Amino acid sequence: MRTLLFVFVAAILCSAWAKTKRDDNKVKIAVYYESLCPDSKRFITTQLAPVWRDLRGAVKVKLVPYGKATHDKVNGKWQFTCQHGADECYGNKLQSCILKDRSLLDTDKMELVICLMSQANPDKALDTCLEQVKKLSNSDKIKRCASGEMGDNLLASYGDKTDLIQRPLSFVPTVVINEKYDQAVQDEAMNNLKAVVCRVSINKPSSC
User: What is the DSSP string of 57-101?
Assistant: First the structure.
């Protein structure tokens, strides 16, 4: 019995180590963006989406929906001011709740964000996009999250992550490659993210 337990634990540890090694070889793309920002919508739909779909095994994407917002706690409750108004705050919260929903696969989360950012009004298009990934049953849960304390806490945590990069961000979206911000790389990524990924990739994908 002990031998079987040892083998089982060893298999889990080896699998976790192998995944970590695979992730270490991926190009890390962090995107600090806003749900109603035209530049954010353009970057995610025309640059990030094709790179993620074509080079999925070569990249690891982190999405941070906050942008140039501010957050302060007043009488025990988070208060947010977003660059494009209250609708953007709600849209950011929706996407925060999607990204932290453990019942959704990572691929579902990415496709949902891409879908939302392709809509005229991302803050009002949740059900449309959930239908596309066949997850409409998650609608009420995500909306409750976005409208409640959990959504506030998630958005505040994304605000803290954004503030570590720059407070406030000088440009949205801000794109960080391999956990190091570089203005020249940011400028190139806005128009040719694939070229950036192919250049810095350790194991270059065949499509490069």
Answer: GGEEEEEEETTT-EEEEETTEEEEE-TT-HHHHHHHHHHHHHHT-
